Amino acid sequence: MSRRTAGALPAGPSERPPSQSEPALPDTTASSCELASLFLCPVCFDYVLPPILQCGRGHLVCGNCRQQLTSCPICQGPLGSVRNLAMEKLANSVLFPCQYAPAGCGITLPPVEKADHEGLCEFRPYSCPCPGVSCQWQGSLEAVMPHLLQQHAYLKAIQGEKTVFLAMDINVSGAFDWAMMQSCFGFHFMVVLQKQENDNGEQQFCAIVQLIGTPQQAENFTYRLELNGHKRRLTWEATPPSIREGIVTTIMKSNCLVFDTSLAQLCAGNGNLGIIVTIAKR
Ligand SMILES: [Zn+2]
Ligand SMILES: [Zn+2]
Ligand SMILES: [Zn+2]
Ligand SMILES: [Zn+2]
User: Fold this and answer.
1) CATH architecture under which domain 152-281 falls
2) What distance in angstroms lies between residue 45's CA and the mean position of ligand 1's atoms?
3) Which H or E element spans position 227?
4) Which ligand is nearest the CA of 153, by number?
5) Which ligand has its closest atom nearest to the C-alpha of 75?
6) Annotated domain spans of the chain
């Protein structure tokens, strides 16, 4: 960004009278982009969006930076808490680029729609799909597998469409996760068994296969989980969600195989539970 407009407030949004001779034309996008640059935070270069607060001399910083500052980064004066209503009004009439524009998103939106879009933007980074560990890693889809192999090397990786996922010692107390990676059809899948308390305080198991790929790619697959006990069989078949959705959301929606501890006991041998995992193409 070459244009530093830090500290400069526009001299009030002047209402431009509609041009009389020419029809209103495409220029609007360019001017929206230029207007958006007036809202660049001088500290982080993100946008300063409503509510917009200014220092005693009229300088603006974004809400995030504001929380970490004790004085105005431009004039070193007190940050103050005076709202700039004119800038807020102006901001609401400007289209701002999505924060993932550098990653390829071409969408521009008014401030009120920006956060919602960014929460769902297909260009936003992927989070680490490894369950149970509080790994803060984020990156592109292509970088997910290298990350898993380097940082979560303990995860077992199995090749093949049909495998047995063996969860050892399922009677372990408290919440616990078992995970492995399965690779077939040129894709990688994350197989997870999670033991946790449900809303009624009862221990339950959730088993799921997620595609390390986009939601669209996930539509091309189905997976089947099979629990076998003495003369019993429980089968679950579904489309694997993409890791985009996140394991917490997926389990919250019960979009997985859910079973209780007594069923797990019926199918386990020596406290270990084998789940037959079959992945197929649609
Ligand atoms: Zn900032
Ligand atoms: Zn200032
Ligand atoms: Zn976007
Ligand atoms: Zn990770």
Assistant:
1) Sandwich (2.60)
2) 6
3) strand 221-229
4) 4
5) 2
6) 28-119, 152-281
* Ligand positioned closest to the Cα atom of 80: 2
CATH of region 28-119: 3.30.40.10
Q: Tell me: the pLDDT tens digits for 189-211?
A: 999 999 998 888 899 999 999 99
Ligand nearest to the CA of 128: 4
> Which residue shows structure tokens 């009862």?
202
The conformational region for residue 115 under phi > 0 = left, psi -120 to 50 = alpha, else beta, is: alpha
Type of residue at 111: P
- What pTM was computed for the model? 0.74
Q: How far is CA 233 from each of CA 22, 203, 225, 228, 263, rounded to the nearest angstrom?
A: 74, 21, 10, 5, 11
Q: What is the DSSP letter of 143?
A: G
CA atoms within 13 A on the CB side of 106: 1
Taking the centre of ligand 4 as the mean of its atom positions, its distance from the CA of residue 133, in whole angstroms, is 8
